[in-house]
Design goal:
heterodimer, A: about 190 residues, mainly beta, SH3 type barrels, OB fold (Dihydrolipoamide Acetyltransferase, E2P), 5-stranded antiparallel β-sheet, 16 strands, B: about 325 residues, alpha+beta, BirA Bifunctional Protein, domain 2, 8-stranded mixed β-sheet, 3-stranded antiparallel β-sheet, 10 helices
């Protein structure tokens, strides 16, 4: 059990039976009045933001969260399936829950799965993932509008801009936090 | 890492401290000017102990336990005992300590200027407070019109005065009565009223509901109100003053009520400050004010937050 004085950025608490993370937090106290804790919270399941003001008498249940290593298996009917690397149990996330991470999900990729009450709610990718270029147009030399880069499509369907020497069939490293090209895999 | 080596975090710490120099200089000058103001007016500077056995029993002010007692949350009780013993005009600049108070304008250890004077009331103190700030500005060679966070702060007298009731009518989404009933007074004051008041002139909010003034005298002409006043400048709360309650039975009853509420909320129940209550019948009609020195430095140095106006925040130690 937490009380209001435990509130800080990053604290994960239960509100209406759903997990929320404190993303912003301000303490104030008018005159001889009670302490007020103004919080911005993000619902960890659907991402919806919430503004709440708490007082010193308020208490909170911690959200029962755990992180487990899982391996990506396959996608089917808008769901992405993973396997727990310790228990070999399988679980799935909806396309909505996976979001942009789908751009990096290749077979056997290891991710950190976040579970709430044992149920997967989101994943954290490795910072760098190696992906195969499946389509690359030849570079139009002298195309000053395009500059020194050209678009390519990766095995996941993700398109991004890369240096002109990257061709079809080459593997490249992509930074999953920015979605940008990092280097060619040797 | 060996001493003298180029540790980047040590460099950052020293740079942060060095960048505060203009604010700390202003602070030093301010303290001198405040002392000058009060000594010129025949106030006696006093020092009362920081370590005390019984802090003033107030529901929302939590003292830090120390050395078998508590660090004082304000010098109020000791200073009033001096008043009762025949010290008619006293002031003190001291550190005060309040558990858990940390925010962009709060530090658990902060500097308070407190002064008391007999034969005056909260109205008289409002005047003296204006005079003090204007005097200090002159001493520091600062203009009476300042810029604070992109807006003008005009400290020339007279300042504005309105009642808590009026402030709710002007700025709040609900009435004072409804806010009191629903227990949302503090919230509305902090988020709806405070940010809108004290521009360009500072404003005194007075006549607080009597339930919100544990040590203040009740108003004779405004029923249900206490002679308590809060000063705001540029949306920043600067000072709290009141006509002192001198009735020991009434004071004891109010303390008992506050302590009962503390117990109900699972907070530390302080011992009853017996010697203070014993001295109270001998206290003359008087008024006292607690003024946040750090906050005044913030305003005068155009700092949005309290951190850069102190040498060290607790996190930096």
């Amino acid at each position: 059990m937490y009380n209001a004085s435990n509130l800080r950025k990053g604290l994960k608490i239960l509100i209406d039976k759903e997990p929320y993370v404190v993303v912003d937090f301000q303490f104030t106290k008018p005159g001889k009045g009670q302490a007020l804790y103004r919080c911005k919270l993000r619902n960890m399941i659907n991402g919806i933001m919430l503004d709440r003001t708490y007082r010193s008498v308020d208490t909170f249940e911690p959200a029962n969260l755990e992180q487990r290593k899982m391996q990506y298996l396959y996608s089917q009917e808008n769901h992405f399936h993973f396997m727990d690397l310790q228990s070999y149990d399988q679980s799935a996330l909806s396309a909505e829950q996976v979001g942009d991470a789908k751009n990096y999900l290749i077979d056997n990729l290891e991710v950190d799965m976040l579970l709430f009450d044992g149920r997967p709610i989101g994943l954290t990718l490795p910072n760098f993932v190696d992906l195969l270029v499946t389509r690359a147009d030849p570079w139009a030399k002298g195309d000053s509008v395009a500059g020194d880069s050209k678009p390519v499509t990766l095995e996941t369907g993700y398109t991004l801009r890369v240096p002109p020497f990257i061709e079809e069939g080459i593997k490249i490293t992509v930074d999953t936090r920015t979605g940008e090209y990092v280097t060619r895999v040797k | 890492m060996s001493p003298g080596s180029n540790d980047p975090s040590s460099l950052r710490e020293r740079e942060t401290l060095a960048a505060r120099k203009p604010n700390l200089r202003l602070r030093a000058g301010l303290l001198q000017a405040i002392r000058h103001f009060f000594t010129k007016r025949d106030y006696l500077e006093v020092e009362t102990p920081y370590l005390i056995p019984a802090p003033a029993p107030e529901l929302h002010i939590d003292a830090i336990p120390a050395g078998g007692g508590f660090l004082h949350t304000s010098p109020e009780l000791c200073m009033k005992r001096l008043l009762a013993a025949g010290y008619p005009k006293i002031f003190q600049i001291c550190k005060c300590f309040r558990q858990g108070e940390r925010g962009s304008r709060h530090l658990p250890e902060f500097t308070l200027l407190e002064w008391y004077r007999e034969e005056t009331d909260y109205l008289g103190l409002m005047d003296e407070c204006e005079e003090m700030v204007v005097f200090v500005l002159e001493e520091l060679g600062l203009p009476p019109r300042l810029e604070f966070q992109g807006r003008t702060l005009d400290l020339q007298r007279p300042w504005k005065r309105f009642t808590v009731q009026q402030s709710f009518e002007r700025y709040a989404s609900t009435s004072l009565e409804r806010a009191m009933e629903s227990g949302r007074f503090d919230e509305i004051l902090a988020f709806e009223i405070e940010p809108s008041i004290g521009f360009p002139k500072p404003v005194f909010l007075y006549h607080y509901p009597s339930a919100l003034a544990a040590l203040a005298r009740l108003s004779k002409d405004a029923p249900g109100c206490a002679e308590r006043v809060e000063l705001y400048a540029a949306g920043v709360e600067l000072a709290n003053a009141f006509s002192e309650l001198t009735d020991p039975d009434e004071q004891r009853a109010r303390f008992e009520k506050e302590l009962a509420k503390r117990e109900e909320q699972g907070k530390t129940v302080y011992p009853m400050p017996g010697k203070f209550l014993r001295a109270l019948p001998f206290m003359p009609e008087s008024a006292g004010i607690a003024f946040g020195v750090d906050r005044l430095v913030m305003l005068l140095s155009n700092q949005k937050e309290i951190d850069p106006v102190v040498s060290f925040t607790p996190e930096e130690l």
